[in-house]
Amino acid sequence: MKTALITGGSRGLGRALAAELARDGWTLVIDGRDPVVLAAAAAETGATGIAGDVADPAHRAALVQAVSGGLDLLVNNASTLGPTPMPRLDALPVADLADTLATNVLAPLALIQEVLPSLRGRRGAILNITSDAAVEGYETWGGYGTSKAALEQLSNVLAAEEPDVAVWWADPGEMNTDMLRAAGEDADAAPPPAEAAAALHRLIADRRPSGRYRASDLVSGR
């Protein structure tokens, strides 16, 4: 039986992807900051839920302990927008950018470093959730986009360094999520996270080569 660790698995894309993998019989460990929401997601997917913040080293240690029996897939999905309303770069406090980088870049790398031995031994995979904000210049998205651009390059280099591990960095596109709503966008007009989750499920099931993917391309079969 395969085991997956999905950060940010209590809501949105993480929860939808957990549901996809649960239907395939995966053993799941998920996390989230709201213990009530996390408990509901864990009950829905049959996952083990561990409440906490991925930026907290003690919480990451608990996640690693939960998959100490072996790991086949790490999904770095948990992330933060940073301060909202999202400021322009000329008004973005450097301390807030540091916090965003801690959650969106440093925490994923720290988890990767901890679980790589298991992933290498089981020829596992890493799925880092990114964004079009990593490659496009959207006003007020500078802090978040910078963090996702860093995560993309981290993934790119990791793919070159780890030939026995599939490393994917995937842009799910706009989704009807609380995060998009918090960014001030019209989330109600966006598709549900389940659509992107189904596309990413295909990426995992097909074990595509390491690289950058867009959920919209996976849906269309490209």
Automatic annotation (TrEMBL):
Any single Gene Ontology cellular-component annotation: membrane
Signal peptide: none
Gene3D superfamilies reported in the protein's UniProt record: NAD(P)-binding Rossmann-like Domain
Molecular function GO terms recorded: oxidoreductase activity
Keywords: Oxidoreductase
Family per record: Belongs to the short-chain dehydrogenases/reductases (SDR) family.
Protein name: SDR family oxidoreductase
